[in-house]
Design goal:
Layout (H helix, E strand, L loop, with lengths): L6 E5 L5 H15 L5 E4 L8 H13 L4 E6 L5 H14 L3 E5 L16 H12 L4 E6 L10 H13 L4 E4 L5 H13 L6 E2 L1 E2 L5 H11 L5 H9 L4 H21 L5 E4 L5 H10 L3
Parallel strand pairs: 1-2, 1-9, 2-3, 3-4, 4-5, 5-6, 6-7, 8-9
Bound molecules: flavin-adenine dinucleotide.
The site of flavin-adenine dinucleotide (FAD) has 26 residues, from strand 3, strand 4, helix 4 and helix 5.
């Protein structure tokens, strides 16, 4: 069983100076695990652009490879072109290219319909300057017309020029393995890295999962509900569950693990320590 596995950590851009200071400390703790890269999310509609780019700049200045998430919903070719130029000037070499979801209240518009349009545009404009990641949904994107069309859409965006993919988080490894096999049959042979969400809060997990279509198995949901407000038990249970999940994935030979850190180092570090990963 391998003890080395490429790791990556995802952060969101902090809204306050205090949040930025806390994130700096979180990053230093997580750098001890030697990540391949760290990524920073990007609010759809460009709502967090400054915060995203500032956090990306800091990561690069700390000597770590940084990936900027980049969403295209509501964007025009001109705005995307300008943002790509800024990222290139910052020395960014890796993007997570997404459609994104417009917050309610934003009008529909923009010149990109799907992430595949964005990937094709980035390749046409910047050649091979960026390593492009795209999102994958082993449990099917919530707005997909069907499981087949979602898989086909995934294959289309990879063929538009993506180098690798990161999945939405999941707790069911069969969904992931089936997805990777089926995508391979459609000619997708890029690495599909599982995205892992450490469990630290029951209410937060339920809220996120309902919104993004990640299924929490009944037994996990009921166990979490049973802990009520007992945060320590939730955390202990979450560490056991997620360490087991990562262990199964590692044993099956996944190409890496991407942690949705929620800007916290504790749970992610403990899982990596328990897995004895280098
Ligand atoms: P797409 O790949 O464009 O798919 C969106 C929907 O359209 C799917 O239902 C798909 O089946 C369908 N579709 C695609 N192409 C076609 C086609 N040709 N014909 C018909 N249907 C099609 N959101 C943010 O706002 N900021 C972030 O930083 C962010 N980071 C993320 C990181 C990861 C790893 C993941 C998994 C998700 C992230 N998200 C982020 C959430 C993401 O923006 C949403 O899930 C969004 O709804 C879909 O984005 P996408 O890039 O997967 O879209």
């Amino acid at each position: 069983m391998t003890k080395t596995l490429p790791l990556s950590f995802e952060f969101f851009p902090p809204k306050t100076a205090e949040g930025a200071a806390k994130l700096r400390a979180t990053r230093q703790q997580l750098y001890a695990h030697g990540p391949e890269f760290c990524s920073v999310t990007f609010g759809a509609g460009g709502s967090t652009q400054q915060g995203t780019f500032d956090a990306v700049k800091e990561i690069l200045a700390e000597g770590v490879e940084a990936a900027s998430h980049f969403s295209c919903v509501g964007a025009t070719r001109a705005t995307v072109r300008e943002q790509l130029a800024q990222l290139q000037a910052m020395g960014v070499k890796r993007l997570v290219a997404l459609r994104g979801d417009l917050p309610s209240g934003y009008g529909i518009g923009g010149e990109f319909q799907y992430a595949s349009d964005l990937v094709a545009f980035i390749r046409a404009e910047t050649g091979d300057s960026f390593h492009i990641e795209v999102a994958a949904y082993p449990e099917i994107h919530p707005q997909a017309k069907s499981a087949e069309s979602d898989l086909q859409a995934f294959a289309t965006k990879v063929k538009a020029g993506a180098n690798s993919a990161i999945t939405q988080y999941f707790f069911n490894t069969d969904a992931y393995f089936r997805f990777v096999d089926d995508a391979y049959k459609l000619g997708v042979d890029v690495p599909v890295v599982p995205g892992i969400m450490p469990i630290t809060s029951s209410t937060q997990l339920m809220r996120f999962s309902d919104a993004c279509g990640a299924e929490i198995p009944r037994w996990i949901r009921l166990r979490l509900q049973g802990f009520g407000d007992d945060v320590e038990s939730i955390k202990a249970f979450g560490l056991d569950i997620i360490t087991d999940l990562c262990d199964q994935l590692r044993m099956a030979g996944v190409p890496g693990i991407h942690f949705y850190t929620m800007n916290q180092a504790g749970a992610t570090s403990e899982i990596i320590r328990r897995l004895d990963l280098v």
